Amino acid sequence: MSVDEFSLIDEYFAHRQHSRRDVELGIGDDGAILTPAAQHQLVVATDTLVEGVHFDRTTPPRALGHKVVAVNLSDLAAMGAEPCWLSLALTLPQIDHDWLTDFSSGFHEVSRYYGCTLVGGDTTKGPLTITVTAHGQLPNGRAITRHGAKAGDWIYLSGNVGDAGLGLAATQGRVQLPAAHLQRVVEKLHYPHPRVALGQSLRGIASAAIDISDGLLADLGHLLQRSQLAARIDLNELPLSLALTETVDTDTALRYGLTSGDDYELCFTVPEERRGMLDTALAHTAVKPICIGQVIGGRPGSMQLSLDGQAWQMPEQRGFNHFGDDHAVSE
Predict the structure, then answer these.
(1) Do 267 and 176 belong to one domain?
(2) Among candidates 44, 131, 112, which has minimal Cα distance to 79?
(3) Binding site per annotation, positions
(4) Which domain holds residue 257?
(5) What mean pLDDT is reported for the chain?
(6) Distance CA 199, CA 122 (A)
(7) Closest Cα partner for 20 from 116, 88, 109, 111?
(8) Strand partners of residue 117
(9) Which of 1, 66, 119, 177 would staple 32 via disulfide (CB 3.0–4.6 Å)?
(10) Is 33 helix (H, G, I), strand (E, B) or coil?
C-alpha cells in the first residue's frame, strides 16, 4: 500500500495526542502558532538519534519513541523549564507500519505523561534518523544555566549513574548479568525518566546544572568549564546501583559511573546557604539527591577524584564523544 507523507503524519502523529490550550494552531499548516505564558521565557533544546551511532537495529522502536522525547525533556529539566511543545523530524528508509505503530506509541506515551504537544515537524526518506526539538518555558530570569557555579558550592547527583552504560554493555554481549539486574539496567537504557519536576524545584536553589547524557566526568566538566572552576569528588559518595556493585569489581563500577552516558540524571551545584532550602523543597518527594563533592578553584574543568581518602586515577576517556577515534554504538 502506498502512503504519502501527509497520510503518514495524520495516521501516526496528528490524531494520537492531546493538545495543550496554549497551542492555537498545531500540525497541518506551514507552522505552529503557540501562546507562551505571560512573563515567561522560552527554552529550546534539540537532540538527534542516528541509527548506527545512538542505537542499532535491535533497539525496540517503542523505546526510540520514548527516548527521543525524554532526552530533550532532560535538557529542559536541567534548566528548570516546564516542557510544552515538541516538533519531530523523522527520516525513514521505508514505510514500516509495525515500526511506526510502536515508535509513535512510545513517543505519545511519554509526551502525554509530561504534558507536551507535538506541534509540527517533517518526514523524509533516507537513513533512519530521528530529531526532536522541545520547547519549554519558565518565569523570566529563573533559568538554571551551566555557568553559575561558585567556589564552595556543593555538587549533587539526582540518582544512580552507570546503569545505562551497563545496560548497553549487556545488550552488546560484553557483560553477563543476572536476570533481575539485566531487566533493570536495560529499562534504564531504553526508557530514561527525565527529572522534570526536580529541575523546576531547583529554581532559585541550584547555582548551576547539567543533565548526564555523555557521562558524569564529561558533563560535569562542561559545567565546570562554563563556570571557570574545578571540583573535588569523593567517589565513596558516588551513587551506584546493586546491578553495578554486585556485577563488576569496584574500579570497573566506578568507571561505569563516571564515564557512561545515557543516565539522564541531573548534576547540579548548591551554595552552602541554600542546602537547607534544597532539603525542604524535596522533603516530600521520592528524589533524594546525593552530594558527591565540592566546587573549588583551579584549572577550569579539572577534577580531583578520591576513594577512601586516596587520590584515584582519572580515566583517560571521560565520556561519549561523537568524533572520538574509538566508540561503540551509544544509546
Answers:
(1) yes
(2) 44
(3) 30, 46-47, 54, 75, 121-122, 146, 211, 213-214, 262, 320
(4) 154-310
(5) 91
(6) 30
(7) 116
(8) 85
(9) 119
(10) strand
- State the total domains in the chain: 2
Task: Report how far residue 263's alpha carbon sits from residue 261's, in angstroms, rounded to the nearest whole number.
Answer: 6
- Extract the annotated binding site for Mg(2+): 30, 46-47, 75, 122, 211, 214
| Bridging pattern class, strands 290-296 and 154-157 | antiparallel
| Secondary structure, 3-state, 76-121 | HHHCCCEEEEEEEEEEECCCCHHHHHHHHHHHHHHHHHCCCEEEEE
Tens digits of per-residue pLDDT, 239-297? Answer: 999 999 999 999 999 999 999 999 999 999 999 999 999 999 999 998 999 999 999 99
Residues within the annotated binding site for substrate? 54, 262, 320
Find the CATH number of the domain harbouring 297. Answer: 3.90.650.10
Q: How many Cβ atoms sit within 10 Å of the Cβ of residue 52?
A: 11
190 and 67 Cβ atoms separated by less than 8 Å: yes
